[in-house]
Structure formats: C-alpha cells, structure tokens
Amino acid sequence: MTSIEECGLVLSMEDVGSEIDLAALVETYSALLFRVAHSVLRSRAEAEDVVQDAFVRVVERRSSLRAVRDMRVWLIRITWNLAIDRRRRVRPEQMDEGFAESLVASSMPADQALDESQRMKAVLRELERLPKAERHVLLLSSLEELGTVEMAKVLGRSESAVRALLFRARMRLRERLERGGA
C-alpha cells in the first residue's frame, strides 16, 4: 500500500478532515441528490453526471463549507440548479422512457403494475404541461417531502410564494388529471 508521503502529496489536517467530510456527505446525500436530479432530467446518466458535478462544487468550495448553515438544502439547491441548467440542453428524446415504470413498486402483480405505469405516464405528461414555477415547486415538495422553508431557499422565493405556487400546482394538476381520466 502506498502512503500519502510516497505519492508526493502533502495534506494538512484540515484537508484530511475535509476529505472525510466529503466522503460522509457523499454517503449521506448522494441518493437524495440523485432523486432531485432524476426528477428533473428523467435520465439516469444525466442525473448521475449532475450529482458528480454537485460534489465537484463542494470540493471547489471546500474552504467555505463551514459557513453553510443547512448542508442538505445547500446541496439540493446546487443539484437543482445544475439539473435545471442541464435540462435546457437535454432533448426530450434523451429522457428515459422507463422513468414512469421506475416509479411503480416492483412487488405489484404485472397487470396492476402496467395500470399504475400508465397512470404515472399521464401524471408526468400533465406535470410537464404545468407552468415552470408550479412544476418546480411540485417536484421539490414530492422529493424527501421538502418543507416550505426549504423549498423557498432552494428556489430563491418567499415562503408565501412557494405555498401559493404549490396550491395552484396541485389544483391545476388535479383538474387536468380528472378531465383526462387518469
């Protein structure tokens, strides 16, 4: 086994602590950040790239991590913004067709899973038709059940604006799904 000194690397205790913290952050938050990115991009590969990019940002800003008050919200915001930026560049045909199927429980009988998959596709279609701000707040509220305060921080909006957007998004989505029979 090669030691740090043999590789020619000299790390201060602060650097070693940061790397341990980074490993803990990756272990703690990578699944959540993947869900955030995947909900926006609907592509496993693109979502994985966004999560990697988010942790690269953490490494780049390692010296200012102590100033971050809520690491979870900060990481979600970084991932969210990276995913939104990437979504602008991703063509719809690059999105996973199997995304709706991935949301269905694997323990269901095949006929129920097929029905549920069709329902999920209808919901996702209508979700895409929502105004951008409403779609964003609805996605965030369904991920890890982010609260209004956290969603406001991620989106850079007031709490009352987030509550209003969430109410309108839920009502609009419900109306559209009822009209469409889903």
Describe this structure in words.
- With 182 residues, the chain is mostly helical.
- The chain has 2 domains: 11-91, Rna Polymerase Sigma Factor, Chain: A; 109-182, Orthogonal Bundle (Arc Repressor Mutant, subunit A), CATH 1.10.10.
- It has helices at 13-41, 44-60, 71-89, 99-102, 110-129, 132-142, 148-155, 159-180.
- α1 crosses α3 (71-89), α6 (132-142) packs across α8 and α7 crosses α8.
- The longest helix is centred in the first third of the chain and has 29 residues, at 13-41.
- The chain is globular and about 50 Å long.
- The protein starts with 12 loop residues before the first helix and ends with a helix.
- Residues 1-20 have low confidence and may be disordered.
Gross geometry: globular
Broad structural category: mainly alpha
First-last Cα distance:
59 Å
- Assign the CATH architecture of the largest domain: Orthogonal Bundle
Radius of gyration equals 20 Å
Question: Which stretches are poorly predicted, pLDDT < 50 over at least 5 residues?
Answer: 1-20
Q: Which percent range describes the beta-strand content?
A: under 5%
Give a quick set of tags describing it:
182 residues, mainly alpha, Arc Repressor Mutant, subunit A, 2 domains, 8 helices, disordered N terminus
Gist of the model:
The chain is mainly alpha-helical and 182 residues long. It has helices at residues 13-41, 44-60, 71-89, 99-102, 110-129, 132-142, 148-155, 159-180. Mean pLDDT is 78; it is low at 1-20.
